[in-house]
Amino acid sequence: MSRTFDYRGKTVFVAGGTSGINFGIAEAFAGAGARLAVASRRQDKVDAAVGRLSGHGEAVLGYALDVRDYAAVEAALADAARRLSGIDVLVSGAAGNFPAPALAMSANAFKSVIDIDLLGTFHVLRAGFAHLNKPGASVINLSAPQAYIPMPLQMHVCAAKAGVDMITRVAAMEWGRAGVRVNSIVPGPIDDTEGMKRLAPTPQARKLTQDSVPLGRFGDKRDIAGACLWLAGPEAAYVTGAVIPIDGGWSLAGVSVAGAGMFDQFAGAFR
Ligand code: NAP
Ligand code: COA
């Protein structure tokens, strides 16, 4: 149980919550006493996540679904809300990424990331609103530095996450009167994640990345989870429409630093 945050009696739904940063978020809320629901495509990952989260003692539900499928998203949110007394915190974190120059992406490759990250976030929020416990509910979208730092090999993710942040801002304006806050969390390079395995796959790329962080280290999943515990609760009651970097200062220097690590390791792709 978190000694700082108390989410007993609250329900948290994490789309894409079965691994990595999003599982870390789910685990932190479970540790603070919340009921949990997690969703992602692979049944084995869903089952494993439900098993681990159940160790905290509160109810945990899991759904194997693709966020690109609106009907499946809607059905899972409705079922979780019915069984867990509505939804107090809705996290949209499902995402896909692979490094590739734009000219090496098929139209379907670009579309896949747009559909998972951007359309998927719309689906989760569009279907989720009806089930939020209002007023007081909080929505958190997982964004990325690519939303505002153009990075080579990341045209799909840059476009998708910039769109996610605009969803955050527009939803915050439309839903504020209903007592629903909507914010984006922007993780920097977080260690031991699928995202970093794909973007910094070699020791050299890891070193370049780490050296470009002002705080001099990779982030930890708990760095992101801690920010979410604060952001979803009463301490952040006046925060909405915000895009909040939790990145050790990584994005401060912009593309010259953050993008350089990405560019250098794949420079051969542009010759
Ligand atoms: P991850 O472990 O691969 O997390 C992605 C999650 O989304 C998984 O649970 C995955 O499970 C699920 N997912 C993927 N496609 C889906 C789909 N179509 N429908 C439903 N679920 C889907 O990766 P991560 O690196 O921790 O990233 C988590 C979030 O943080 C992402 O939003 C990412 O953009 C953001 N982020 C990460 C970093 C980083 O350093 N890693 C930096 C900035 C932002 P299934 O395979 O079972 O579907
Ligand atoms: N370079 C270029 N194109 C690629 C690629 C790469 N490295 N990897 C996949 N693609 C293309 C595929 O060839 C396909 O295009 P095509 O139909 O024209 O051949 C398209 O992307 C979709 O691939 P597919 O594997 O069918 O999609 P999917 O929906 O099963 O998986 C991905 C989505 C591609 C994003 C996959 O990487 C994934 O599931 N990622 C989730 C985990 C993740 O990325 N975590 C990190 C989050 S930051």
Summarize the structure.
By secondary structure, the protein is an alpha/beta fold. It has helices at residues 20-31, 43-54, 70-84, 107-128, 155-175, 194-199, 203-211, 221-231, 255-265, and strands at residues 11-15, 35-40, 60-64, 89-92, 138-142, 181-187, 243-246. The longest helix is centred in the middle third of the chain and has 22 residues, at 107-128.
Walkthrough of the structure:
The chain has 271 residues and is α/β, with parallel strands linked by helices. The chain has a single domain, classed as 3-Layer(aba) Sandwich (Rossmann fold), CATH 3.40.50.720. It has helices at residues 20-31, 43-54, 70-84, 107-128, 155-175, 194-199, 203-211, 221-231, 255-265, and strands at residues 11-15, 35-40, 60-64, 89-92, 138-142, 181-187, 243-246. The protein has a 7-stranded parallel beta sheet, with helices on both faces. Helix 1 links the parallel strand 1 and strand 2. Helix 3 runs parallel beside helix 4, helix 4 (107-128) packs parallel to helix 5 (155-175) and helix 7 packs antiparallel against helix 9. The chain is globular, with a radius of gyration of 18 Å. The protein binds NADP nicotinamide-adenine-dinucleotide phosphate (NAP) and coenzyme A.
